[in-house]
Amino acid sequence: MYHCTRAPLARRSACCLLMGMLAWVAGCDRTPREADHAEVSGQVTIDKKPVPGGQISFVTTKGGFAAAANIDENGNYKINAPVGEVTITVNNTALQAQQPRVGKKGGAGGGPPPKELPHPKQAEVQAIKGHWVSLPSRYANADSSELKYTVTPGPQSHNVEMTSALPPPK
Known about the structure:
Immunoglobulin-like; five-stranded mixed sheet; four-stranded antiparallel sheet; 1 helix; about 15% helix
């Protein structure tokens, strides 16, 4: 008889505990629907020379957020980037069509256009200005770019320095 009176109490307690846990889990959605952003500006260089045009993207390493902006003819950029750790990509292949082809078939290099680039939700993307220069293709893709940065809240400056040399083996 002692066992029969405790069972309903135990069931009610377990049910209340389960309902409380479900309510807590439902209220703790860990996947944000939008990221906080901060203004980042700076200059993009390749071998210490300004990149004369193209596009720069900041892609979060977690959460799937991205932002893109144009690089001007002097290598300068200003972007409203997602806050947190990002991988930076730089791509100027859109300017390659404007360059006359010289030398061997296929031009001077820069690699094929990346298979997949982040698509910014910014509708105000302006036409890319400047002229094409050869950039290592690894910088055009978030999976292969070694350019990392942590965006913090508030305006900040970050120069993006690329090199033609291959990165050291990992």
